[in-house]
Each structure stands twice: as C-alpha cells, then as structure tokens.
Amino acid sequence: MSEKIKKDLIRCRLCQEIKEGVYLKSYNLKVCLNCFLNFFKKRVEKTIEKFKMFDKKEKIAVAISGGKDSVALAKVLKDLGYNINLFHINTGIDDENYAENSEKAVKKFAEKENLPLKILNLKDEIKIDIKLAAKISKKEICGVCGMVKRYLLNREVKDFDVIVTGHTLDDEAGSLLSSLIFWKEFMKRQWPVLKEEESLKKRAKPLTLVFEKETKLFCEILKLPYNPQPCPLRGGPYLFFKNFIYTLEEEMPSSVLSFYKGFLKRKKEFKWEEKKIKLEPCQRCGYLTSAKICSFCRLKEKISNLL
Amino acid sequence: MSEKIKKDLIRCRLCQEIKEGVYLKSYNLKVCLNCFLNFFKKRVEKTIEKFKMFDKKEKIAVAISGGKDSVALAKVLKDLGYNINLFHINTGIDDENYAENSEKAVKKFAEKENLPLKILNLKDEIKIDIKLAAKISKKEICGVCGMVKRYLLNREVKDFDVIVTGHTLDDEAGSLLSSLIFWKEFMKRQWPVLKEEESLKKRAKPLTLVFEKETKLFCEILKLPYNPQPCPLRGGPYLFFKNFIYTLEEEMPSSVLSFYKGFLKRKKEFKWEEKKIKLEPCQRCGYLTSAKICSFCRLKEKISNLL
C-alpha cells in the first residue's frame, strides 16, 4: 500500500520551473518538491479552516504513533504556527521491535522539532499485552488497541482543547466504505471533527483530505524521522477496505476524493432512523459511553479477574 | 471470477443424506446437488414474490444472452410454471466467436427446453458493429451495448407484460457500490423491479438475491447448454467493482448479501435532493428519455451522418 510517488524532472505547474518533482495523478498536477510541501500544508490548513477544527489560541494534543501520517501532521501543525504538544502511546507490540522503533522515531522527531512530548505505556495501564487483551475481550486486536489508546489519550489531555489524529483520506474512505457495506450506525458519527461532549474531548482529523502517499512524500522530502514499519499486528476488515481504497484510487484517479467529499456533502440528506446513540457517563470512571460501564473499564475488570 | 464451487461428499442439511454436494459458505449451508436445485429455485421464487415482480398469468419476455445467468433464469422460470418467451440479441461481437457461440447456446437451450425464441441482430439495427458505435458515441462499449439492447428489447416486446433479465447479486451489488462511490443519481432507480412507465415495459431481475457461482452450479448440475465465455470486450469500472464484490464475499462470506439487503431495507431512509429525473417521450421514436432525443436515436443519427 501507499507506494512511493516516482520523482522525475518536470515543469512545476505552480512555480513554472523545471526541477525534480512528482506527478500527483489524483489532482492531475505536476509539482516540484518544494511546491509540493506548500501544496500539502495548504491542503491541511484549508481542511482545518473548512471544518472549523481549531484555531491558534487553542491547546492542541497531537496523538503521534511515530508513523508517517502522525509525524507529517505534527510537522505541518507546527509550521502553520499551531500550539501543539505530542502524546505517544507505546503499544508494547514487540513483534519486529515495532513499539520500540516507533517510540525511538517519535523521540527523535520531538527533539529535532523541539516539541514537548509525553509518553504513556499501554502495558503499564492494562497490565497485559494487547494480543492477550484482544483474546480476553474476544475482539480484533486493532479494535481493542484503538479503544485503549483513545481512552488513555482522552484521560491524559484534560488541560487541552482538542485531540488531533493523523487519520488520512485512505483511513476515512476505508472506514466509510466499511460502514456502507455493513450499513453501520457508525457512519452517523463519521466527520472530520467531533465536538467536545462532556468528558469526551473535541477530536479532529486534519489529514482527512490528503492521501497517505502524500504524507510519505512529505516526510521524505523533509527527512523527518518516522517508523516506516506498518504495525505487524494489523489486518482484518480494516486492512481489506483500505487496500481496496488504495487500488480504487490507482485505477480511477481522484475517485476516492470524490467518494469521501460526496459523503461529506450528502450526509445531511440521509434520513437515519432516529435511534440516536445515547452516551452516558461510565459508572466506574465517568467516561462517556453507550453502555453502563465503558469498554476500557470492562476490559480492566476482565483482566483483573484473570490475574 | 465466479469460480466453481467444489463438490464433495457431505451430509446434506436439507435431506440429511450423505451424498455428493457443496458447501455454500454465504449461507453456511451444506447441501446435496439435488437439494441445491430446489434451494436455488425457491430463492428465485421467493424473490419474485417478495418484490411482487409478476405472476403466472403475465406474459414474460426473458432476455437471454446465452451466459450461465440468463440460461439458469429461463430454466427456473419455466420449471416454476411461468409463461415465458426467450429474446436473444446477437451482439455481433466476433472476437473469439463470442456472439456466434452465444447464439448457438441459446438455440440449443430453447430447443432442449421447447421454448419460443426470437433472435435480433444488433448489427442489422445500427448498421455498424458495437466497437465502432462506442467510438462514435465516445462512450464505454458496455454502456452502449447495454443501451442498444435495452432499447431493442423494449421495442420487440410490445405484447408482453414484463421483461426479465439475468442480473445477479454480483451485478446488483457491484453497481450499487459504484453508485455509492460516485454518489450517482442512478441509485434512485436501483430496485429489483421497475414498474411500467408509458412506453417503458416493466422490468424485473429475479436473480437479484443469488450469486453467480450458484447460477453456474445450477447450469452444470442440469447440464444446460450455455456459453461459458465472458464477453471479450467487457472491462472498465463495471468489472472493477464486480471483482471487488466477488473478493469481498470470498473474504467475508455473506457480507455482499447483507450489503445489498441493507440497501433495499434502508433505501427509503435516504432523503435525496428532490431533483426528480423527469422522463419524456423521445421526439423521434417516443421511447421515454431524460433528453429530448433518446440515446438510441442519437446514436443512429451520428451513424447515418458518418455512413
């Protein structure tokens, strides 16, 4: 997935000079590497403004995994002058030294860019590793890992105004497709920004309109430290749909952009059955949840019963 | 696509006997070959009844291409006691003798089943072959071929009550997916049956809830004559989405069924912008169209200007 975009000598359509550059077939645009950086930053800036995600006075917590997407996001936000702090959750995934390499990349990046960084350890929080946790909860690893990370992050950023994540167009279009295939209620909550709801911080996805191959190119041009390994535990339906989205864009350039933008434009036209998902505070920790006890507390209970 | 379902010695869940049979993973069902035939027929019969497609008093025109789907459809309808006539349009596609082989299969089937058959030649009607027609109209071959076949069939069946086609779940889910990706208005008209509108005959798709691998198995068990060649000119987005649907079902059995059924169930919840497509009679031939002159007459005009 997200192959490298081939570099070549081109006439840049933005600065008109003949230089090393790339052809972005999704936009039918040839740009030199320097203009690409601006083009990328502007797309992110426009996304932030269009969806009224946050402004320069707000305190922003960037969830940084150490992969290309979250690293590119942190760099763009810093360069655009936003007030950001980095939060990394070490997943403890030791296959192929994944968690270790990710943490290293994040530390290197934070140091290079002189950004405040806080690191949490998932294993410290739930006492066991994520594979076992998934087995105990009888759920997919990716689902449990995501749930725990969201919970921890939300708890850690009390003094912040918003949590931003590096979800890209590939991610968003992939989950939209999956929601449409299974007609999941989740689609109701799918939007580039979700406002604060009691104990749930505001969340925003400023990379929602850029492709992963662009975040990769951005990191490479700027030689940003990032961990190029995909998570060794990833898989399942999520990956299946994301792969399809990738192939779709390769086969029919710009189709993914129009798919996702079409959804954003038409979402209000869907007249969903009014089964509104009601969120109430968890009886254990107060985190907003659709059940009596939130998934995180239920997982912790299951684990402590076993240990 | 639509690979063979592997035959094996199984205990049939319907008749309980140990016999040669198949495992249908979409329904998590092991059935012997004989029970499969009944199972398949019943699914088609239920689809016809559920969507109130037609009854045994109506005169039915079956559009038969000679492929496994339309052949299976004609056989099921005959066995269920419907009053059917066959209509075959020879597409004139001579690559790999496709049109010739298809016509042969249809003739053999009609003779074997003692069914009335009418054959039309697409080339006689538009004077040129379909590849050239597609070039002239600057459209995809499949689109032009489909449009011409629909037009000719509609014209030929004046004395009939309904046209039925062999569109399968693979076809319908594929075009639904394509409509969702591009947010096409077409989705509004996507339904297993479309009622008569002035000059447009009622149309129905009784195979809308069965997979192509099932129509293939049905034909093979009964040794029905059909042309196993896929159309040598097929391709484009249609094939791309259909292939995805096939892979999706292989990866996540029954997901395609729930995708399409979910759409049927929720379609009424979509509150489309009320840009109702208004159909008016073509000024040349009277066929209902959304333009002043219908696509078929426009194509014929373009052709006669060139000849």
Question: Which tags fit this structure?
Answer:
Rossmann fold, three-stranded antiparallel sheet, 307 residues, 11 strands, homodimer, 11 helices
Summarize the structure.
The structure is a homodimer of 307-residue chains. Chain A contains 11 helices and 11 strands. By secondary structure, chain A is α/β, with parallel strands linked by helices.
Outline the structure in words.
Two copies of one chain form a homodimer. Chain A has one domain: 3-Layer(aba) Sandwich (Rossmann fold). Chain A is 45% helix and 15% strand. The first copy, chain A, has helices at residues 33-50, 68-79, 98-113, 122-126, 130-137, 141-156, 169-182, 212-221, 236-251, 255-266, 295-306, and strands spanning 7-11, 18-24, 29-32, 59-63, 83-90, 117-121, 162-164, 193-194, 202-204, 280-281, 288-289. In chain A, the strands form three sheets. The first copy, chain A, has a six-stranded mixed sheet with strand order 6-5-4-7-9-8, with helices on both faces. In chain A, strand 1 and strand 2 form a beta hairpin. The model of chain A has no long low-confidence stretch (mean pLDDT 92). At the A-B interface, helix 7, helix 9 and helix 10 of A face helix 7, helix 9 and helix 10 of B.
